[in-house]
Design brief:
alpha/beta, Spore Coat Polysaccharide Biosynthesis Protein SpsA, Chain A, seven-stranded mixed beta sheet
Length: 247
């Protein structure tokens, strides 16, 4: 946990409470509603621990920006050491992103990054590099593009509400439209390497392949030990080809 917030970056996981029937629904019926909620919880816990790993390299404080309001107790088992909670104030993705950035910047941090909760193997170095970019002098935007056209990370030093306005959320246009908004307000974005979200069977298969056959690629995926343990247990009683059959 950093001592001087002005010299640190706050990185928050944007997370919904992992509730049965409301979590990772695009993975059902391949996963039961109960298992979809469990894997969602694993994703959040791994993301929190990934932020803690990045904090060993760069001055970073970790948060979970959670929704709905009043759900803090549901995240108590998902916190990494030093992780804090910041509640949502308004419904909707745009409002949640805006408010999380506003609340964390108001605490005095020199920079803020918001990351999704659907990329448990996101390389730790991407988080550290985002914090380093925001530590440099001058206003800037940091974006981590997701392969589906969205972004897995958005980072800023000042609150720019325009970055969250008139965006076609949950479409392949999100990243491009955010770049456009940055241009409108004169921000030159720092673009991180791309990564992927787990939001359907195809990307779950990719995640399992990454976990089941670890190599030494660069950048190195985060080990995501809780997600890996869930998938190993989930598949233990099934044919090894069962996951591939879900495509």
């Amino acid at each position: 946990m950093s001592l001087d917030r002005a010299d640190a970056c706050a990185i928050a996981v944007m997370a919904k409470a992992p509730r049965v029937g409301n979590s990772k629904t695009r993975l059902m019926p391949f996963l039961s509603a109960e298992d979809a909620a469990r894997i969602s919880a694993c994703f959040i816990r791994d993301a929190a621990e990934n932020i803690a790993a990045a904090a060993a390299q760069v001055p970073i404080d970790g948060y979970i920006a959670h929704t709905p309001p009043g759900a803090a107790a549901e995240f108590s088992a998902l916190l990494a050491p030093g992780t804090r909670l910041v509640p949502s104030r308004r419904p909707g993705l745009a409002a949640s992103l805006h408010d999380a950035a506003a609340d964390l910047l108001r605490m005095g941090y020199g920079g803020v990054c918001l990351i999704n909760s659907d990329s448990p193997t996101l390389p730790t170095e991407f988080l550290a590099d985002a914090a380093r970019a925001l530590a440099r002098p001058g206003d800037r935007l940091v974006l981590g593009p997701a392969e589906d056209g969205g972004y897995y990370l958005i980072g800023m030093k000042r609150l720019h509400a325009r970055l969250f306005e008139d965006i076609a959320w949950s479409t392949e246009a999100v990243f491009a439209q955010t770049i456009e908004r940055a241009g409108e307000i004169g921000l030159e974005p720092v673009v991180l390497p791309g990564w992927y979200d787990i939001d359907d069977i195809r990307t779950l298969q990719r995640l399992w392949s990454e976990i089941a056959t670890p190599g030494s690629p660069r950048p190195r995926p985060y080990p995501a030990r809780h997600t890996a343990a869930f998938l190993h247990d989930f598949l233990r009683a099934r044919d090894p080809a069962w996951l591939a059959a879900g495509q």
